[in-house]
Design a protein that fits this description.
Helix content: over 70%
Radius of gyration: 21 Å
CATH class of one domain: Mainly Alpha
Largest sheet: 2 strands, antiparallel
CATH superfamily of one domain: ABC transporter involved in vitamin B12 uptake, BtuC
Number of strands: 2
Shape: globular
Distance between the termini: 12 Å
CATH topology of one domain: ABC transporter involved in vitamin B12 uptake, BtuC
Number of helices: 14
Length: about 350
C-alpha cells in the first residue's frame, strides 16, 4: 500500500461533490414530513422568497421549517459526521474492520450517565442529560486507557480487549438500572438507547458543532502519519513519526468526539461502522481523502435516516437508530459476503 502526495484538487473536488449531496439532503429533508410542504414549492419559497420574509410560506410552515426541522437536520448532520470520522480512526488504528466508534465502551459509559440522569430528573437542568452522558463517556475513556496502557506504550489489542470488557460491565449496569426502575421514564431511557435527535436545542447544536469541527481539524492534521502507521509502525518510526504519541492523540480525540456525539444523541449504531467502509471502497484508503469524505457522507446519511425515522410512521416516529440498523446491517453483511478487504 503506497500513499503518494495528496492531490489537493482531487480532495476539493470530492469534498465539493459530497457537500452538494449533503446540501441536497438537507433541502429535501426540510420539506418532507407530516406537514408536507412540497419540495418544488419549498425550494422556490426558500431561495426566491427570502427578501420578502419567506412570504410564500404560512406562519405555521415557517415555524416547522426553521424552528423544528432545521435544528434537527443540522443536529443529525453533526452527529453523523462525528461518528463516521471516529469510525475511520478506530478502524485504522485497531486494524479491525469491525471496529466502530463504540468499540472502546464509550457508548456504555455515556448510556449509564444518561440513564442515571433520566431517572433522577436531570432533564430539568440545562445540559443535564448530555452533561452526565459526556461525563460517563470521559470516565470510560480514562478507565479503558488506564487498563490498556503498558508503560509508555498503548497496545491496540489490549485497548480493544479493555474496551470490550468495560462495555460488557456497563451493559450489565444498564440492564440493572432498567430492570429495577419503576419510573415511567423507562420508555425515555429505551428511546435514548436507540438514538434520539428530537430534542436538539440551539445551544447544543452550536456547542457540539464547534467541538466536532475542532476534532476534525485535529484528526485531519494527523492524516498522513495515520497512513504510515496503518502501513507499518516500523516504517512510520523510520520516517520520523512518533508512533505512540500520534496513536494516543488520535485515540483520545476520536474517543472524545464519540463521547460528545453519544451524549447529545444517544446510541446510533452502524453509522461509524458502514460509512468508513463505503468511502474506503469507493475512494481508497488514503485518510487525507477518507476523513473529509466520511465526514460529509456520514452527515448526509444520518440526515436522510432521521428524515425516514420521523416520516415512516407519522404522526409517530421511530428512533433513528432503528433506521440506521435496518440500512446498515444488510449492507455490512453484503460487504462481508463479497469479501471486501480492509
Amino acid at each position: 500500500m503506497v500513499f503518494r502526495t495528496v492531490n489537493l484538487p482531487k480532495v476539493l473536488e470530492i469534498s465539493f461533490v459530497l457537500l452538494m449531496i449533503l446540501a441536497g439532503s438537507i433541502i429535501v429533508s426540510l420539506f418532507v414530513g407530516v406537514t408536507d410542504i412540497g419540495i418544488v414549492r419549498g425550494i422556490t419559497g426558500l431561495f426566491y422568497g427570502w427578501r420578502e420574509g419567506y412570504a410564500g410560506f404560512t406562519h405555521l410552515e415557517k415555524e416547522i421549517i426553521f424552528s423544528i426541522r432545521l435544528p434537527r437536520i443540522l443536529f443529525a448532520g453533526i452527529v453523523g459526521a462525528a461518528l463516521s470520522m471516529a469510525g475511520v480512526v478506530f478502524q485504522a488504528l485497531l486494524r479491525n474492520p469491525l471496529a466502530d466508534p463504540y468499540i472502546l465502551g464509550i457508548s456504555g459509559g455515556a448510556a449509564v450517565g444518561a440513564i442515571i440522569g433520566i431517572l433522577i430528573g436531570a432533564t430539568l437542568l440545562p445540559l443535564g442529560i448530555p452533561g452526565l452522558a459526556f461525563l460517563g463517556a470521559v470516565l470510560t475513556v480514562i478507565i479503558v486507557f488506564g487498563i490498556a496502557r503498558t508503560g509508555a506504550q498503548l497496545r491496540s489489542n489490549t485497548l480493544l480487549l479493555a474496551g470490550v470488557i468495560v462495555n460488557a460491565f456497563f451493559s450489565a449496569i444498564i440492564m440493572f438500572l432498567i430492570s429495577t426502575s419503576t419510573s415511567s421514564d423507562v420508555h425515555n431511557v429505551m428511546f435514548w438507547l436507540m438514538g434520539d435527535l428530537s430534542l436538539a436545542t440551539t445551544g447544543e447544536i452550536v456547542l457540539t458543532g464547534t467541538i466536532i469541527l475542532g476534532g476534525f481539524a485535529i484528526l485531519y492534521a494527523y492524516a498522513r502519519p495515520m497512513n504510515l502507521i496503518v502501513v507499518s509502525e516500523e516504517t512510520a518510526l523510520q520516517l520520523g513519526i512518533n508512533v505512540e504519541k500520534v496513536k494516543k492523540i488520535l485515540f483520545v480525540a476520536a474517543s472524545l468526539i464519540t463521547g460528545v456525539a453519544v451524549s447529545v444523541s444517544g446510541i446510533i449504531g452502524f453509522v461509524g461502522l458502514v460509512i468508513p467502509h463505503l468511502m474506503r471502497m469507493v475512494l481508497g484508503p488514503d485518510h487525507r481523502i477518507l476523513l473529509p469524505a466520511s465526514f460529509l457522507f456520514g452527515a448526509s446519511f444520518l440526515v436522510v435516516a432521521d428524515t425516514i425515522a420521523r416520516t415512516l410512521m407519522a404522526p409517530g416516529e421511530l428512533p433513528v437508530g432503528v433506521i440506521t440498523a435496518i440500512c446498515g446491517a444488510p449492507y455490512f453483511i453484503y460487504l462481508l459476503r463479497k469479501g471486501r478487504g480492509f
